[in-house]
Amino acid sequence: MRKLKFYIATVVALILTIFFAGTGAAVAAHADTSPKEYYIGGMTAGFMLSAGGAEVIGLSEISTEDGIRRPAEEAGIRIGDTILAIDGIKISTISDLNSALERCGGKKIVVTVRRGGETAETELIPVRDKKNNKYKIGVLIRDTLAGIGTVTYIDRETYRFGALGHAVCDENKNPLTISEPRVYLCSVIGVNRGVRGKAGELRGLFVNDTPLGKAEKVCDSGLYGTFDKKYDFSRCELVEAAPLSEAEIGKAVIYSTVDGTFPQKYEVSIVKVDEFSRENKNFVIKVTDRRLIDETGGIVQGMSGSPILQNGKLIGAVTHVFLNDPTRGYGIGIEKMIAE
């Protein structure tokens, strides 16, 4: 058996933006001073994210003409690893992996995997499954992850939307990317209540014939894209957005969907405001609405992105729950989301 040799991948990102300003000429612009308006979200959305490769969710044995073999397990591959490449060729989907194994023709291959924050390489020889005559290495994999979250706002003019209010990562804190660009309406069919020490979650079903729009990117402050103009906005309220400087300790409301497909308004209290937080934790909120506490225990997974309104203006979105108290959680300022 050849042991995995790990090395830490170093990523250097260089972002350079250069602004050219013309000289010798004056440019006059007329600015529209009317306040910008946003549709309040609160509806639950379903989306698909890429695992960033072929994630190993199980190890299996293969019946060959020479007996039972376990190439992946023998080479040191473990459940939770993500296969990134074979012989230097990127693997993003199950189809990519199957094609790579067929190309090898039973010859030795070099498999690049990610384990936690490290990358490793190992060599193995695929074997032919006598049941279907295909080359295999003995892994069960997935290449996409389904998730649900809450839409925060939709720009009235551009139909650009923001959701979630935080980055999306796998169990090993690796950021995920968009796999399927469509975002679907999600019907909430149940709730696992949040209790002290364990976060609850919404249970939902994708309404596949009702796309809400197209996702375009996931970043530290949420998931963004363009909403479907055909969506019925007649039940959505229009509001202005307010900067963090206008937020204050006291009463507020959130919009969340904890049953079915349409959001309800719930009372909360803002107990802390931090304009300078760099971790998308500009607010600490406490759920005070007895209805929401009775239904969910407070804030649960799937409610991320629930819009927060105070004094009739959109000021932020729910992002995290306190594990030691599910009635409390964090929120991100809407300025950060709209800036993306």
Description of the structure:
The chain is mostly beta strands. The chain folds into 2 domains: 38-50 and 144-339, Thrombin, subunit H (Beta Barrel), CATH 2.40.10; 51-143, Pdz3 Domain. Helix content is 8%, strand content 48%. It has helices at 71-74, 94-104, 290-296, 334-339, and strands spanning 5-7, 38-40, 44-59, 62-64, 67-69, 82-86, 89-90, 109-115, 118-124, 127-128, 135-136, 139-155, 160-163, 177-192, 201-219, 222-227, 238-239, 250-256, 264-273, 283-287, 307-310, 313-322, 325-333. A 6-stranded antiparallel beta barrel has the order 3-12-13-16-15-14. The chain has a 6-stranded antiparallel barrel with strand order 18-19-20-23-22-21. The longest helix is centred in the first third of the chain and has 11 residues, at 94-104. The radius of gyration is 24 Å and the shape is elongated. It starts with a strand and ends with a helix. 38% of the residues are buried. The model is unreliable at 1-31 (pLDDT under 50).
